[in-house]
Amino acid sequence: xxxxxATLTVLVSGASGFIGSELVRQLEVDGHTVRRLVRxxxxxxxxxxxxxxxxxxxxxxxxxxxxxxxxxxxxxxRLPWTRGYKKQILASRxxxxxxxxxxxxxxxxxxAVLLNGSAVGIYGDRPGEKLTEKSVKGDGFLAEVVDRWExxxxxxxxxxxxxxFRTGVVVGQGGAFTPLLLLTKIGLGARFGTGAQNWPWIxxxxxxxxxxxxxxxxLSGPVNLAGPTPATSxxxxxxxxxxxxRWYIFAIPRRLITFLLRDAGRDLxxxxxxxxxxxxxxxxxxxxxxxxxxxxxxxxxx
Length: 302
What we know:
Blueprint: E1 9-13, H1 18-29, E2 33-38, E3 47-51, E4 56-57, E5 67-70, H2 83-106, E6 113-119, E7 130-131, H3 141-152, E8 161-167, E9 169-171, H4 178-185, E10 190-192, E11 201-203, H5 204-215, E12 221-225, H6 233-243, E13 250-252, H7 254-261, H8 263-270, E14 274-275, H9 278-282, H10 292-299
Parallel strand pairs: 1-2, 1-5, 2-3, 5-6, 6-8, 7-14, 8-12, 9-11, 10-13
Antiparallel strand pairs: 3-4
């Protein structure tokens, strides 16, 4: 007879967001207790106020907590990336991470693990390369953001294990997938550039499940959260249009994308990153959705 896994108390920032909502759902199904960090007045005993922009947090939020999951950060799917919004993308990640790290350091009984959001954007445009957690940092705006984000998560002392989970494009009805979904729904789904660039992807279910896996893993440092089967940009956009029964007749040249969207176009649409989830697979994680088609089907009722 197998023993029931121990239940944990998990503090989550960004719990009401696209990924956070699914993570909280899965944690609660597993019987874990979820505490939420909120910016407004707490409404329940499991909500705790914080202000990451000013570095303030209710210290009692970390009392008797086993793990902290930080999902805070301004959406990269919001366009355009103005100069001011690019500053917000960076500050929202660095400030929230720094606030949590300082709170963990100050805690009398720090949590056993900090799982901090990160992104595959750290690798930059690397066509033809297989990218693992051992790959060096690339170039570009997102690469610089992620590098500073991960640096803010470093705990020089203490017993808290730190994981920075580098997430690919999360396939679902929200998050950074939203602009692509909206364009496709109105019949403007298109090939971006050549369409041959690799887009690292992961289903919303597997994103949350992988974070849950990391709660009790022994892994630390960067861990890639990307599906096990590579997919090109054209694989994603053409199948999404097919799944939603929409036209797929347009092709947007690379030059036009970079002219209209600048860094957002380059980093989100044109960058090629063949990201492998080596550590996650070696650690025994099993993907429910192994191909991007399965992920799209799951997101849209298939």
